[in-house]
Amino acid sequence: MDINAMNLFLSEGNIKRHLEHLREARLRYSILEKSIPEIKGRAPTELVRLNINRDVKDEAISQLWYIKAHECFFSSFTEQQTDNVNVLKHYSSKEKLLYDLYTEALERDHCFLFIYTDRNGTPRWIFSDKSDGSFIRYEPILAIDLYEHVYFLDYGFDKKHFLRNALSHLKLSSLDKEKK
Hints:
The relative contact order is 0.17. Helix 1 packs antiparallel against helix 3. Strand 1 and strand 2 form a beta hairpin. This protein folds into two domains: about 10-75; about 85-175, Iron/manganese superoxide dismutase, C-terminal domain (minor pseudopilin epsh fold), CATH 3.55.40.20. The radius of gyration is 17 Å and the shape is globular. The chain has eight helices and three strands, in the order αααααββαβαα. By secondary structure, the protein is mainly alpha-helical. The longest helix is centred in the first third of the chain and has 24 residues, at about 10-35.
């Protein structure tokens, strides 16, 4: 996983701490898969339909949400930016999209901002935590972690500064992906 671009807005220690949490979550999920083989290799949409104990199912979905959300967050940043056809098609500019994301994200805490494209290729976003189930319905291609622990070590309570820095490095070229 390439995280070099995250060094542009998060400290190395902060990034390492988050990667360690992700590694631990993957380990917990691996143990869960070994104890309940029916969940192995299944997507969140498939986990919902499994006929297994509700508590086990909820734990599996929660762990998988955590893993997928963080993997998407880490893969959402790059040092290279490109103009984005879909953003320019649906917004007046990529700056307009970033401004809209910024103003919405300022109002939210304790969640992830997931960006996906709808059936028409239009960039959309949702704010999600583990409990709302939206991660099961949408396949995000970009994510920003808005939990306070992500930015507090580097920015203190200055969420605005964190958001400006993070959004300026968001890999908007991912929004050009064609829906299949």
